[in-house]
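Bit of a strange request maybe. I'm writing a small parser for C-alpha cell strings and I need a real example to test against, not something I typed by hand. Could someone generate the C-alpha cells for this chain?
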Amino acid sequence: MLTFFVRRSVGAGFVLVVVSLITFAILQWLPGNPAEIILGMHASPAQVANLENQLGLNHPWYLQYWNWLTKAVHGNLGTSLVYGAPVSTLILQRLPVTLSLTGMSLLWAAFIGFPIGVIAAVKKNKWPDSVIRVGLQIFLAVPSFWMGLLLMSLFAMHFQWFPVSGLDNQGIGSFIKSLVLPSFSLGLVEVAVLGRIVRRSMIDALEAPYASTALSKGLPATKRYVRHGLRTALITPITIVGMQVSSLLGGTVVIENLFSLPGIGRLLFVAIQQKDYPLIEGLTLFIVVAVFLSSLIVDQLYRYLDPRIRLR
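Reply from user aminoacidic:
Good idea to test on real output. This should exercise your parser:
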C-alpha cells in the first residue's frame, strides 16, 4: 500500500509540473499585460515598467515559472497580482463554497441517477427503460449554463422560490437554498452519466452466468437484484464519479459566474481575465491535487467493494 501511494504521489507531482509549466507558457502568449490591467489604461509607460519590475514580470517567462515553482515546493504559492493577498488564503476562503456546490451536485447524481439507472436495468426493454433512456440522453445534451438560466428564470424569477443569485450565509437553511439551483444545473450531466453507467453495469451483472445460475436455483428476484446486481454494478459508477471530479471543477467556472457564487470557479475566471499568474498557478495546483485525492479515494472504495481487486 505504501509503495502504491508513493508511486501515485510521484506521478501526481510529475503531472503537476507538466500542467503548471504548460499553463504558464500559454499565459505568456495571451494578449494583455498584468501590470497594465492592474494600473488601468491611463497609466504611463514608466508606471507600467515600474510595476513590472516590482512584480518580477520583466524577467523571462521560464525564470518567472522557476521562481514560482521553487516557492510552491515550500508551500508558498505567492501573492495574487489582482487581490494583493496570499494565493493560499484566497483559495481557502473560496473552497467551502465550491466543495458545497460540487458535493450537492454529486448528491443529485446519487439520489436521482442511481435509482433511475437501477429501474431502467430491472425494466430492460420495457417502457420505463425507454422513457428513462430518452430522458438521460436529453439531460446529457443540455448545457449546464442553459439549464441554469432556465431554472433561474422559472424558480427564482417567476415563482421566487429560490434566490436569483449570490450566496446567503444567514443560516444553514439559507445557505443550502442558495445552492439548490446551481448544484442541480451542475449535476444534471452527472445524473445522466451515472444513470447510464448504472443501467449498463447492472444489466451486465444480472446477465452474468453466476446470476443466471442463482436464479435457476430458486433465488428470489429481489435478492438476485441486490446480491448480484447492485453490489457488482457499484464498481463502475464509482470509477466514473471519481473521473468526473475534474469535469465538475471545470463546470463550476460557468455555474459560479452565472449565479454569482464566490467560489473557486469564479476566482479562476477572474484570475484568467486579469492574467493573474500566481493565482492561476495556485488554482491549477489545487485542481491537480483534488483529482489526485479523488483517485485515491476511488481506489480504496474498489478494495472495499471487490476484494479481488488488488493494487499493483
